[in-house]
Amino acid sequence: MNTIASVTLPHHVHAPRYDRQQLQSRIVHFGFGAFHRAHQALLTDRVLNAQGGDWGICEISLFSGDQLMSQLRAQNHLYTVLEKGADGNQAIIVGAVHECLNAKLDSLAAIIEKFCEPQVAIVSLTITEKGYCIDPATGALDTSNPRIIHDLQTPEEPHSAPGILVEALKRRRERGLTPFTVLSCDNIPDNGHVVKNAVLGMAEKRSPELTGWIKEHVSFPGTMVDRIVPAATDESLAEISQHLGVNDPCAISCEPFIQWVVEDNFVAGRPAWEVAGVQMVNDVLPWEEMKLRMLNGSHSFLAYLGYLSGFAHISDCMQDRAFRHAARTLMLNEQAPTLQLRCRFNTICGQVNCTFLLIRR
């Protein structure tokens, strides 16, 4: 069967320009979903295209995703991202994924040992808010969660993300290996603290010494992510196949816009993501605040009023002069003044962001 790895692709398709044989699994990623494929993995691929290197990704899925990972293996861990814009579409073959592991296809033991390999420097996650097993009322580890209960009873065979992270860190400490950075890439507020609370909450149930070691040696940078990545459909996969001339069951479509703001706090190195346009900052909070209020807030504003006015899509609203004016007024007069941007130019930043968001829609 022909795949994107076995055929010559059209010239308009962007393919990896680096030596994939040099890749190592230096990043282990929980959650090989649509967003990760079109966001963090794609940006890492851009870094590799710009300067090469060995920053490969090992994708991990626990109790689902076995079919997707089988398909990924069949095409040498390559997959397509189709960026769809008003000025045309661009198909990109992402080659940053080095390998993948799945509990059904491989084993849970193999997954945990992957985290313990010496070259692993970053463990990143897109597992949704539910995957962190946090009590939303307290922000602490939810010890009534069935998977957490299981992991506390059988800590060497964990089923939860916090349990696996703590067991892996425990083994690395015992083997004298350097720790890794834990990088949440989920679209949830203060995601660095969320995953930190989950990991420390689990560690505290196991060992005070381990907890102290994690606090001292492991970092949990905050991130802000932004890109619209719809789930794949038969129609979107068929469209991508037309661009490629071959089927890619792992392909995904997305908008052209992409943003990633990352707290630059890594204990064992990182890719030069800034080469790919990632904003490496000391504090993610101002950026997160801007997105949640000016993008998400105005999006809800347009969705509710647009629905009541008979519009089907946000883009339809933005073709209406009154809606466009209302959205701009909301952002500049109501939302921008509330931003706590820690710079002298918060008003200017708000105006620029407002203009950009209106264009993006």
UniProtKB/TrEMBL annotation:
It comes from Escherichia coli. The keyword NAD applies. It holds the Pfam family Mannitol_dh. InterPro entries: 6-PGluconate_DH-like_C_sf, 6PGD_dom2, Mannitol_DH, Mannitol_DH/Oxidoreductase, Mannitol_DH_C, Mannitol_DH_CS, Mannitol_DH_N, NAD(P)-bd_dom_sf. Signal peptide: none annotated. PROSITE patterns: MANNITOL_DHGENASE. This is Oxidoreductase yeiQ. Keywords: NAD, Oxidoreductase. The keyword Amino-acid biosynthesis does not apply. GO terms for biological process: mannitol metabolic process. It is an enzyme of class 1 (oxidoreductase). One of its GO terms (molecular function) is oxidoreductase activity, acting on the CH-OH group of donors, NAD or NADP as acceptor. Its EC number is 1.-.-.-, 1.1.1.-. Residues 26-274 form the Mannitol dehydrogenase N-terminal domain.
